[in-house]
């Protein structure tokens, strides 16, 4: 079998990427400038690439909002494209004199020296899921802000909230009847209108996330997350968007560090102490984990017992962060090993799968009945082959036979 020839780059091209333009320059393996830095408008990059870049070039650019588009544009035409971690590069290249030309050459020279701290380049599907999750988060934040402003009005005027929900559509007459000034009435009316606008927008986003949960590659991974207490389908999709490919984390410890839930450590000389969590990582993953941890504590005896033990020693806030960290370790195990959570109860998991199949008629969209959808997800987990019935909202649900061989009792 012939070995695949490894192409050694002859030039190292640095790209300093900005909103409307890029600075491009290159050095050779001896750090000699072979392509002087020059400014290029973004729409001219393809023309510049065709004229100046070679198949033996190695390219580096920093991870910014528009880095992925340029990455996709360059990858087929050069030896390699590396996306640099912007914060770590900044630490390496910190200088009092900073220009676009210098930044470009520093990137090129760091690449030539093998000193670029690279980031993982997510596939297109992961990028799109991350964009959808981020868009939903912004919409939820807008809704939360509007609700908080309306609550503040009640607080300022000592108004008791009405029965039946403060923000319900049928409460508009109640808001109009309150003794508010003309300006406050205007603000309240606009915040209520904003809530009315956001409701269908969020519903549409969540329908799309539910649809994606049943498509590749997510369909094979979501059941392993939904089986966990405190994790629903939307939370599972947030986890998967942040994690991307679980294979890039060889250990649970690395995934914890990536989330920013690891403890700060100072170890120097005779000094060693730890502090709070680093918070250096994907913020949306941390937030979703803490929310899932509260739900797990509420609904799972195992997690509630663990939480109470920790809270007695460290307090509730630190305890819930510890639960979130432990839950993330479980996430790593079930995703990387494709295994069932050892704390999972088959009937409880089946009920969660039925809820998943019911939301936005997810099961029907797959051409399945709801019980058949539940059985499909249980078979994906490779568990509960002998589970025939369970109770959901007081009703008995009969499952179709499993495609798996029922477990034998030894």
Please provide a brief summary of the model.
The protein is of the alpha/beta class and 410 residues long. The chain has 16 helices and 9 strands.
Report on this model:
The protein has 410 residues and is an alpha/beta fold. The protein folds into 4 domains: 11-112, ATPase, nucleotide binding domain (Nucleotidyltransferase, domain 5, 2-Layer Sandwich); 131-212; 222-336, no CATH class; 346-398, no CATH class. The protein is 51% helix and 14% strand. The chain has helices at 45-52, 67-74, 86-93, 100-112, 124-156, 172-176, 182-212, 222-226, 233-243, 252-259, 283-299, 301-314, 316-336, 346-358, 362-365, 370-381; strands spanning 11-17, 21-28, 33-41, 57-62, 80-84, 263-268, 271-277, 389-392, 395-398. The strands form 3 sheets. Strands 3-2-1-4-5 form a 5-stranded mixed β-sheet. Strands 6-7 form a two-stranded antiparallel sheet. A two-stranded antiparallel sheet has the order 8-9. A hairpin with a 2-residue loop joins strand 8 and strand 9. It is globular and about 75 Å long. The two termini are 48 Å apart. 29% of the residues are buried.
